[in-house]
Amino acid sequence: MLNWKQDARLLSSILMVFTLVMSIPTAIAWSSREHDAFRGFLWAMFTALVLAALLYHISLSASSRKLGTRDGYILVTTTWLLVTAIGAIPLRASGAFPTYTAAYFEIMSGFSTTGASVIPVHDAIPSSIHFWRSATNWLGGMGIIVLFVALVPVMGSGGAKLVGAEFVGPTKDKLTPKIRNTALSLWLIYVGLSVLQAILLLAGGIPLYDAATITFSTMSAAGFSPYAGGVSFFSSRYVLVIVIIFMFLSGVNFALFFKALMGQGKLAIRDKELRTYGIITLVVATAGGISLAFSGMYDIGESFFQSLFQTVSFISTTGFVTADYQTWPAFNQMLLFILIFIGGCAGSAAGGIKVMRIMTMARLAKVHMRQRLHPNGVFPVHVGTKILSPEVTRGVSAYFGIYFTTALAGILVISLTGVDFETAVSSVLTCLSNVGIGFGQVGPKGSFAMFPPWAHWVFSFLILAGRLEFFTVFTVFTRDFWKR
């Protein structure tokens, strides 16, 4: 049974933290004399505070009963919907976005680290709004709820229920005995890597504002940029190399960074998923570079660099671009299309199906074939040295089923907008995998602006479902969830 009043109290606290975070772009709007954006941020903060006060009033007689699994699902889903609704207010109030629907889609894309955009002209957007877009990337990269649990004490095992509902994955690493310490450790690592990237960008002559926005979108594996050309706007090979390195790191399981800091570097390097992630990146980048070199589009060095950048951008689901890859050979485009499905490692900021799930399904297929040859044999499913429990393998199989079922349904619905087949398929898959860029009209030179408003709501739902890896969102809509 849901503990509604306790849920209301936690949601009130989350909104208070969210209000504090929003004060930063509010200050930027004030200092930049962007009056419409400033008023928009004030309205958003006022709305959050009023809702927080109402929810706290409702929760005054809340029981001390611990949060259950259902509370975690409903609270995480509601939080993401609510902070997106409030976070979209400044975008619409500033006049930068024509409708609230477009603003909602943009912020949902930001918090989910998808990076898909409806902005037709970047120059017309106030600097504070661009900063807020990039900041939502960074906040969503490690998770809104994970940040809340790291900052605010949550009763009993409630923190674990909340983190488990948001930080979904095929396997979970418990870094410390207390979930709050785990959440804090993950965020400190995330902040540390972000600071390091920002310092390296500043060392390359990049202004502080640009270094911050690039870092926000890189470490979160998101891809928003204040400029139409993205990171290629700076025309700096140094900047692109730094971005490649940190895009790749954003797709690595953050638990491995923790292990490395704890003196277990060799154990982290031997991680089977990390090695597979690196091998896939290297093989695809090399194959793509060879193909580009033979096509004659670039010289050999540029061919491999462009292939490496786009490979890392796609597999980490960051979505930065440095070239119009839709003019590349079909072989290169197919390689990038496959990466939309794979994504980064479990426990990373990246989206996609995740390398661990791909490895698990491959292992399951191998075990099934051996089982058919030896019906009485017992063959455990293991990835590297880790034997996976039946619960994990069932969860992985269910994930694949729900991913492709949702994708097919989404493609069918979006096809009603009248877009071509390539755009319909690519737009849905890039939203589900939180990549942000795709093919057709949502390629490197396109955006989601040409879709009708109702389609933006569909995409927003697909983005949220993909970010929370389906089960948290879809479970709320089942009959069993609401049974007493």
UniProtKB/TrEMBL annotation:
GO CC annotation, single: plasma membrane
Entry's localization field:
Cell inner membrane
Q: What broad class describes the main subcellular location of this protein?
A: membrane
Q: Which Pfam families match?
A: TrkH (PF02386)
Kindly list the residue ranges recorded as spanning the membrane: 39-60, 72-91, 138-163, 184-209, 238-258, 279-298, 334-353, 396-419, 454-477
Entry keyword Ion transport: yes
Q: Which GO terms describe its molecular function?
A: metal ion binding; potassium:chloride symporter activity
* Record-linked InterPro entries: Cat_transpt, TrkH
List the membrane topology term(s). Multi-pass membrane protein
> Keyword set for this entry?
Cell inner membrane, Cell membrane, Ion transport, Membrane, Metal-binding, Potassium, Potassium transport, Transmembrane, Transmembrane helix, Transport
Where does the signal peptide begin and end? Answer: none
Q: Where does this protein hold K(+)?
A: 113-114, 317-318, 434-435
Source organism's superkingdom? Bacteria
Q: Which family does it belong to?
A: Belongs to the TrkH potassium transport family.
Spell out the protein name for this chain.
Answer: Cation transporter
Q: Which organism is it from?
A: Parasphaerochaeta coccoides (strain ATCC BAA-1237 / DSM 17374 / SPN1) (Sphaerochaeta coccoides)
